[in-house]
Amino acid sequence: MAIRLIVGLGNPGPEYEQTRHNAGFWLVDNLANGIARCNLVRETRFNALAARAAINGQDIWLLEPQTFMNRSGLSVGALARFYKIAVEEVLVVHDELDLSPGAARLKKGGSSGGHNGLKDITAALGAQDYWRLRIGIGHPRTLGSQQPVADYVLHRPRKEEQPLLDDAIAKSIDIIPMLCDGKFDAATMRLHTAQ
């Protein structure tokens, strides 16, 4: 088993482009412009921006749903069914409140942790055994802010947080070729010790 579909979560539109909730889009954009060397194009049948790429000689799909976050499953489920991609071959990249800015963690399965994008993807795929690449954005409470979570994720990172997020994304992209080769344990160890 190896990763065949990499999904970046975010909200479409220029007003959301630079917000914390779009960390998944940022990673997929960097991946497409870097090692995947491809251009994401609008795929109306999947309601997404998508690209087929080769990473380490493996055929991979990159996907950015163009629904809003809480309807991400529509795009993910449609592409996975069409190309017969198993749940265990899906990697979803998303922002994570429970990790500090600059941290990144890889895990397989588990609950949605209140993340509406993950809830919808789990419902669309009929299982939660897909891989998740969690990009830390911090929590307003741990950062000493009274800002509501919904408001916090839809704002830009603070100036001092952006380089930390960029670094977490770069470290995460470094392990993508390993995931495309099915080397999950090695990828996890490298990412978790690179922090």
Summarize this structure as a short list of keywords or feature phrases.
195 residues, seven-stranded mixed β-sheet, alpha/beta, RNA-binding
Question: Topology of this structure?
Answer:
Elements: E1 5-8, H1 23-33, E2 41-43, E3 48-55, E4 58-65, H2 72-82, E5 90-96, E6 104-108, H3 116-125, E7 131-136, H4 149-153, H5 162-180, H6 184-193
Parallel strand pairs: 1-4, 1-5, 5-7
Antiparallel strand pairs: 2-3, 3-4, 6-7
Enzyme class: hydrolase
Protein name: Peptidyl-tRNA hydrolase
Pfam families: Pept_tRNA_hydro (PF01195)
Describe the protein's architecture and organization.
This is Peptidyl-tRNA hydrolase. One of its GO terms (molecular function) is hydrolase activity. It holds the Pfam family Pept_tRNA_hydro. It is found in: Cytoplasm. Its EC number is 3.1.1.29. The structure is a single chain. β2 and β3 form a beta hairpin. The chain is globular, with a radius of gyration of 15 Å. Helix content is 34%, strand content 21%. The chain is α/β, with parallel strands linked by helices. α1 (23-33) packs across α5 (162-180), α2 (72-82) runs parallel beside α3 (116-125) and α5 (162-180) runs antiparallel to α6 (184-193). It has helices at residues 23-33, 72-82, 116-125, 149-153, 162-180, 184-193, and strands spanning 5-8, 41-43, 48-55, 58-65, 90-96, 104-108, 131-136. It has a single domain (5-193), classed as Peptidyl-tRNA hydrolase (Rossmann fold), CATH 3.40.50.1470. The protein is built from six helices and seven strands; from the N terminus they run βαβββαββαβααα. The model has no long low-confidence stretch (mean pLDDT 95). Strands 2-3-4-1-5-7-6 form a seven-stranded mixed β-sheet, sandwiched between helices. The longest helix is centred in the last third of the chain and has 19 residues, at 162-180.
